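Severity: low
Component: inverse-folding endpoint
Summary: output formatting inconsistent between runs
Steps to reproduce: submit the following structure tokens with default settings.
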């Protein structure tokens, strides 16, 4: 095709996309179930302050949100996605393939990955090795990797309760699942001498797969459903972000991991070993065509939201240090583009 006509076609396409985008009168947010309550809180504050419609916030999981976010530019695609881990290279490649390259990334705070139980249940103190022994599809026994034989907690250690292992957790599309595998399962796996001789590929296979014999139950992307299951069964345990434990601390208690209870302080200083950063991503190409998007981004990274005692903090997020918050805020307001992988 003639380069002149090709250029005209591209410009025309952008104009059409921009005009159609202006027709959408609500901001769209997708992504992590852990980041969902913070996005929802920012949406409510934005609507209250601006008088505009509250953004539509969907809990799709981190992986699901990235897939939707990276489909393209225009009104049929969301403006922001929340994530309980950083964007992966494969997700960046999908975005790039679909023309979504002008993206800003924001680290918004920290969250602990908690294992919780009803206040009527037994609050355990587990090592990451014991967590791996409870939840992995395979574990080493007498020097060989075998299907996980542990049916009760006491099978792992006689000091643990003589009670069936039953743990509800997130699906593979969840950033919470990704982070839990990385921070808890991999660390627990490496505690076994047998893990040292594994190749990189075998390490990923042996140390990442959750058991599928009914003792680990995938509960979908709605963490509130896990909370409800724990309320109804005091012998069950559940995995989710600290914010959900914090919001339900009248009903649930968090398990200690290697002797440390999940709290704002222990997550913030990393003494609680299964903690992770939280992010959101925004399409800069949508800022000037989706009504209110720039103001919503400013609200999301405001001191009222992200600061010490801010409404994210009130919902369980551990704030960034003040200097880091200022850096993130400036970067987002200026629509600084994240670097390519």
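Observed output (run 2 of 3):
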């Amino acid at each position: 095709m003639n380069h002149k006509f090709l250029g005209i076609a591209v410009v025309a396409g952008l104009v059409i996309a921009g005009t159609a985008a202006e027709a959408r009168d609500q901001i769209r947010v997708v992504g992590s179930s852990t980041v969902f309550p913070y996005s929802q809180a920012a949406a409510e504050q934005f609507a209250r302050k601006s008088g505009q419609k509250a953004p539509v916030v969907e809990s799709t999981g981190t992986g699901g949100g990235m897939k939707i976010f990276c489909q393209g530019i225009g009104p049929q695609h969301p403006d922001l996605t929340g994530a309980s881990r950083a964007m992966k290279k494969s997700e960046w490649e999908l975005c790039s393939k679909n023309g979504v390259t002008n993206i800003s990334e924001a680290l918004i705070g920290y969250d602990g990955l908690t294992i919780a139980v009803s206040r009527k249940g037994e609050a355990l103190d587990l090592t990451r090795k014991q967590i791996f022994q409870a939840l992995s599809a395979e574990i080493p026994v007498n020097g060989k990797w075998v299907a996980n034989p542990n049916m009760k907690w006491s099978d792992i250690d006689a000091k643990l309760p003589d009670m069936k292992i039953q743990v509800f957790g997130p699906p593979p599309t969840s950033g919470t699942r990704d982070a839990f595998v990385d921070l808890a399962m991999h660390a627990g796996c490496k505690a076994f001498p047998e893990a040292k001789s594994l190749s990189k590929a075998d390490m990923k296979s042996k140390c990442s797969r959750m058991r599928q014999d009914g003792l680990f139950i995938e509960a979908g992307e709605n963490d509130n459903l896990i909370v409800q299951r724990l309320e109804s069964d005091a012998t069950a345990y559940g995995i989710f972000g600290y914010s959900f434990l914090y919001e339900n601390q009248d009903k649930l208690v968090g398990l200690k991991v290697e002797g440390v209870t999940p709290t704002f302080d222990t997550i913030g200083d990393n003494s609680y070993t299964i903690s992770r950063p939280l992010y959101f991503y925004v399409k800069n190409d949508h800022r000037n065509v989706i009504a209110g998007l720039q103001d919503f981004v400013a609200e999301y990274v405001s001191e009222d939201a992200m600061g010490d005692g801010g409404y994210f903090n009130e919902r369980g997020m551990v704030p960034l240090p003040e200097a880091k918050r200022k850096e993130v805020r400036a970067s987002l307001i200026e629509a600084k583009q994240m670097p390519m992988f």
